[in-house]
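[User] Once you have settled down, look closely at the record that follows, and write a paragraph about the fold.
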Amino acid sequence: MKHTKICLAIGLSSVLMLGCGSSDDDNTTEPPVEPPVEPPVTTIDINDTQSLSAVLQSVDGEKGSVTLTLTGDDDKQVTSASAFNLVIMGYPEEGQASTKYKLAWHQANHSNCITDEQCTLNTHEAESGVYNLDLDEVEWKAAVTNYRVAVEVMGDKAHLELAFLD
């Protein structure tokens, strides 16, 4: 019986030693899952901004087309704008002046979509904050070669007064 107890003790010890041969203590840890980062807001609706500024991108005075960028609060691109007043002034080459007042003559084409019920200005937001403004019809004297653009923009909380963009 003593022999049986010794064999039983050796057998149990072997099982315990073999069972402990591998370790469940795995030192690899999963990297912590970071919450998704929201991209910064870069746009603001025309009716939410409290400030407005415009930068002239391009002018095709002959066709009555203007491209401009609108920015609002915190330099965010302004979206959904539709209330524009556009004036394109045409001037002759330097040196051509009115004989009566010795001033350069000028000609204007415009459309006011802020106050006029019939708006003749096509507006298209090409991308966030970038607007193409196209007058339906323009007529220029043959001597007009230089153009200046004035723009007014209105939202619920902000109003960019009519001013020339240079």
